[in-house]
TrEMBL record, chain A:
Gene Ontology cellular-component annotations: mitochondrial inner membrane; mitochondrial small ribosomal subunit
Domain of life: Eukaryota
Major site of localization recorded for this protein: mitochondrion
UniProt keyword terms in alphabetical order: Mitochondrion, Ribonucleoprotein, Ribosomal protein, Transit peptide
InterPro entries per the UniProt record, alphabetical: Ribosomal_Su5_D2-typ_SF, Ribosomal_uS9, Ribsml_uS5_D2-typ_fold_subgr
Gene symbol of the encoding locus: LOC108741509
Stated name of the protein: Small ribosomal subunit protein uS9m
Region Disordered, annotated ranges: 371-390
UniProtKB/TrEMBL annotation, chain B:
PANTHER family: RIBOSOMAL PROTEIN S7
One Pfam family cited in the UniProt record for this chain: Ribosomal_S7
InterPro entries named among the record's database cross-references: Ribosomal_uS7, Ribosomal_uS7_dom, Ribosomal_uS7_dom_sf
Species annotation: Agrilus planipennis (Emerald ash borer)
Gene name of the record: LOC108736146
GO CC annotations on file: mitochondrial inner membrane; mitochondrial matrix; ribosomal subunit
Main location: mitochondrion
Family: Belongs to the universal ribosomal protein uS7 family.
Compartments, as annotated in UniProt: Mitochondrion
Domain Small ribosomal subunit protein uS7: 61-224
Name recorded for this polypeptide: Small ribosomal subunit protein uS7m
Assigned keywords, A-Z: Mitochondrion, Ribonucleoprotein, Ribosomal protein, Transit peptide
Length: 390, 232
């Protein structure tokens, strides 16, 4: 029993042992009984030559496997309990349901989202681990093992390799007297390099800030090569889009009132301390009503200008009616809230090109800037008290 | 040979072109926006220019900041005037500052119209600029200094060294001097009136502010012997 177990374990992890065993089996195919004893001596020999590092690794790996198994088991049980608590079917209880249940059962006002209670599968909670990096004699598999961060330096190595290859290619093209076409140059505007955390997840290695900047510098250099389009896939692996297109193209559906006019209501128009909701009706004649009054609701010119800014920008000033209700904040904030509400609602009435130009004009971005708080020990948010020596 | 060619033709191989909007290290302190957010292009004409030059393709996937609350695409909007209003403003009283500048523009219009109607011949009438905004631009342009003096310490002695002035700084000085000139007045005269006179004077290259600019130029000319301290 013990013997077979040991054998199994040996057979498990590498080709070399397997090869030895099979050679043994080949040389003495008839004496099946002795094979086992032979095998044992072979295993002992192998075991002697197995490095301490490998042994320690195996122990750690086993412990980790068991730990994960236990965690998984507990997670499954917990999920079932949660489903029962919520009165739902535990068999069809998905991760989304778990998240919702946790949010309902453990409401948290903590600002940092990562500090709120969660319940995720253990694979997400506990970081991934590297597989064995060396064989049982202690010889590392990877040629960059002794750098301590083999995956990271391998990535840098790959980048340099690509640059060299592209340079070689450029040289050959220059010898043929052909120059890189600027039109085929790789254009990845609107993307940014993977951030440090994401890169660490890909590499399964912790890297320091300086190493991350080195990576960015190297890959930027590769990206700026005139022939970089030849290795687009490699570069794209480390780039992610700056902005999701969904947010601005997700249009609310038009509704129709009893007169047959189409309208859209935008709720939660926020700016500074002001909040409100805006309804846009089309076709209209340019009537603007704010809290029941017309544009004269604002006493100053600037907020009035702000309210009609999206309307003049899209040339819809006399084609729609606007009805807005705002409260809280001052005139500037209220005008800003209405401006955002009108631009957000107008998207349903204009074409895609105008939506895009509205976005570039900064009309569709929600302005999150607010008053900065006063700090203790200071006269204001930034202003310090007059400094006196004593 | 080929590698030599690359050095000459392929600029990329030794110049690292880094686009500032993609800089990932956050350098914007307390800013609410991530560093890659670009400034909005809120004027229709500016956007059309971008479209013509094809640069609009570059920013199609880059998020923009929200337009500020004194920026509109209205025809009455003028960036330089906005800046001027901000320089006139004290203690955050923007409404007051804007009112003062608008009032002074109104005064300019009145003065110029009066001149226009008093002019006898058609040629004289044509020579009179009536648009206050044009007069303002002309005035700011006329008051921009080309050089200014900066103290540089050499051998324990501070020398006033004439140095060429950056465009933005000279624009600021020009506007600051205009405002200072308008604030130097009797108590019975109002700021908008005085500012209107100063602007009209400066637009015709006369008056206190232009004189101040010329004085500075003269001083720079007098200190030209120290000019080499700028680099040695």
């Amino acid at each position: 029993m013990l013997r077979s177990l040991r054998l199994k374990r040996l057979l498990q992890f590498n080709g070399k042992t397997l090869y030895n065993v099979s050679r043994l089996l080949r040389s003495e195919p008839t004496k099946l009984t002795t094979v086992e004893s032979e095998n044992e001596s072979e295993a002992k020999l192998e075991k002697k030559s197995m490095s301490k590092a490998m042994k320690a690794y195996l122990e750690r790996a086993q412990a980790h496997d068991e730990f994960m198994k236990q965690q998984n088991y507990e997670f499954q049980i917990g999920k079932r309990h949660l489903a029962n608590m919520m009165g739902e079917n535990p068999e069809t209880f998905t991760q989304d349901d778990v998240d919702r249940a946790i949010e309902y059962l453990f409401p948290s006002g903590l600002y940092e989202k990562r500090a709120r209670p969660i319940m995720k599968p253990p694979e997400e909670v506990f970081p991934k681990r590297k597989a064995a990096e060396f064989d049982e004699t202690g010889r590392p598999h990877h040629f960059l093992f002794y750098t301590g961060k083999s995956n990271y330096f391998n990535l840098l190595y790959d980048i340099v390799e690509h640059i060299n290859n592209l340079n070689k290619y450029e040289d050959s093209m220059l010898n043929k007297n052909s120059y890189p076409d600027p039109n085929t140059k790789l254009q990845l505007d609107g993307y940014q390099w993977m951030d440090k955390e994401a890169l660490e997840n890909v590499l399964i290695e912790k890297i320091i800030d300086k190493e991350y900047t080195n990576f960015v510098n190297a890959i930027e250099r590769l990206y700026n090569h005139p022939y970089s389009y030849r290795i687009k896939e490699f570069i794209l692996k480390y780039r992610k889009p700056l902005m999701s297109q969904k947010s601005t193209s997700d249009l609310p559906k038009l509704q129709y009132d009893s007169d047959g006019r189409s309208y859209v209501t935008v709720y939660e128009c926020l700016r500074k301390r002001a909040r409100g909701h805006v309804t846009i009706r089309a076709p209209g004649s340019g009537i603007i009503s704010i809290n029941g009054k017309d544009l004269m609701y604002f006493e100053d010119t600037q907020p009035r200008e702000q309210v009609i800014f999206p309307l003049i920008f899209t040339k819809m000033l006399n084609k729609v009616d606007v009805e807005a209700y705002v409260e809280g904040g001052g005139p500037s904030g209220q005008a800003g809230a209405i401006r955002w509400g009108i631009s957000w609602g107008l998207r349903s009435f204009v074409d895609d090109k105008i939506i895009e130009s509205m976005r570039i004009a900064g009309l569709l971005t929600r302005d999150y800037r607010t008053r900065e708080r006063k700090k203790p020990g200071q006269a204001g948010a930034r202003r310090k008290f007059t400094w006196k020596k004593r | 040979m080929a590698s030599l060619k690359r050095i000459f033709f392929g600029k990329h191989s030794f110049i690292n072109q880094r686009n500032s909007i993609y800089s990932l290290i956050q350098q914007n302190g307390m800013s609410q926006y991530p560093s890659y957010y670009i400034q909005p292009v809120y004027r229709k004409e500016a956007q059309e220019e971008l479209e013509k030059s094809g640069e609009i393709m570059k920013i199609t996937h880059v998020p923009t900041r929200a337009a500020l609350n004194d920026q509109t695409s209205s025809v009455y909007q003028d960036e330089l005037v906005n800046l001027f209003i901000n320089y006139v403003m004290r203690d955050g009283l923007k409404t007051l500052a804007r009112g003062l500048v608008e009032k002074s523009f109104e005064n300019i219009k009145r003065i110029q119209l009066e001149k226009y109607h008093k002019a006898k011949t058609e040629a004289e009438k044509q020579a009179i600029e009536i648009n206050p905004k044009n007069i303002f631009h002309q005035a700011v342009n006329n008051c921009k200094p080309l050089l200014y003096l900066t103290p540089i310490k050499r051998g324990g002695v501070k020398y006033q060294v004439p140095v060429p002035i950056p465009d933005k700084r000279s624009q600021f000085l020009s506007m600051k001097w205009l405002i200072e000139a308008a604030r130097e007045k009797e108590r019975t005269v109002h700021f908008p009136e005085k500012l209107a006179y100063e602007l009209i004077d400066a637009a015709s290259n006369t008056g206190k502010v232009v004189k101040r600019k010329l004085d500075l130029h003269k001083q720079c000319e007098a200190n030209r012997a120290y000019a080499h301290y700028r680099w040695s």
